Structure formats: structure tokens, C-alpha cells
Amino acid sequence: MGEGQVSTVIRAMEKNENLVGKLYQVYAEKYPEWHVFWSIIAAEEDVHAQWLAGLAREIEQGTMVISVERFDLKAVQLFSQYLEQLLKEAQAPDLPVSKAMRCAYDIENALIEKKLFEIVSEKQSKYRMVVQRLQEATEIHRHKISEALASM
Q1: For the chain, what is the domain count?
Q2: What is the CATH number of the domain that holds 41?
Q3: Can you say whether the dihedral through the CA atoms of 29, 33, 36, 41 is positive or negative?
Q4: Which domain holds residue 80?
Q5: How many CA within 13 A on the CB side of residue 145?
């Protein structure tokens, strides 16, 4: 896979992080009693998108070379479509907060189980650091959402 294609993959992942952040912000506005919870997680998703944008810029500028071993851009794009559908559904006035929590848990879980962050075998420290941080942050989100679900 060429550098342009790698950049496209990273940009698609960035788009997904932005979509997740938008979804969580919609939830923050929709459920005032959970506003702080969702706002914090939404802001963290924005940071994740910025990390990926930084990687993409470095690849596009030629300051970082990454080779993709296994990756299906189509899978990331399908995940984008799923997130866009969830954003539409979030507009429904009768969407219970418990369903929003379950959707959020499924999102975070899918990112971990499908290993969408593990697309390369690179040993480059900057790439590895970003991927590790994304994985850890996703685990934390999944845990927070799981705790919130349990408290309902």
C-alpha cells in the first residue's frame, strides 16, 4: 500500500473519531443529567482525531513512512456509515439514555475487538505511541461507559 493510501486510511480513522465525538456531544446535549460525562468523552474523542490528523500530516509530508500489513479501508468506511446512522438516530426525541450508553459501549468495544488501531507493524516510536494511547483511551472509555450502564 502506497503512502497516499496509508494517509487515506489514517484520515478515514480520523473521520471516525470525529464522528464518535459528535455523537457523544449530541448525547451530552440530549441528556442534561449526563452532560458532563458525555462532554468529557466527546472532547477526548476530538483529541484522538487530532492525534490521527498529526500522523496523516507527517505521512503526507514524507516525514514518516508507514507500511500497512493488514487493513481494509472498506471496514473503516462501513464503520463511518454506522456512526452516521447513529447520529441520525440520536436526534429521535424518545431515545433512552440507556440505549445511547449501549451504542457507545458497542462503538468502543468494536474499536478494540476489531483492532482498528493496529493497522501496521511499524516499530516507529511516534506511530506506536499514538496507537498505544488510542488503545488505552478506548479501553478507558469502554470501562467508563460500562460503569455508567451498570449504575442505571
Answers
A1: 1
A2: 1.20.1260.10
A3: negative
A4: 3-150
A5: 26
Instruction: Say which residues have a Cβ less than 8 Å from residue 18's Cβ, sequence separation at least 6.
Output: 45, 46, 49
DSSP string, 11-23: HHHHHHHHHHHHH
Distance, CA of 136 to CA of 91 (rounded, Å): 30
**Position with higher pLDDT, 40 vs 121:** 40
Q: How far is CA 132 from CA 24, 51, 60, in A?
A: 22, 11, 22
Note the pLDDT tens digit of each residue in 11-30. Answer: 998 999 999 999 999 999 99
- From CA 38, how far away is CA 33, in angstroms rounded? 10
CB 103 within 8 A of CB 110: no
DSSP, residue by residue, 118-129 = --B----HHHHH
Q: At what angle do helices 97-113 and 3-30 cross, to 10 degrees?
A: 160
Task: Give me the amino acid identity at 72.
Answer: D
Residues 26, 29, 31, CA angle at the centre, nearest 5°?
105
Q: Is the full-model pTM beyond 0.90?
A: no
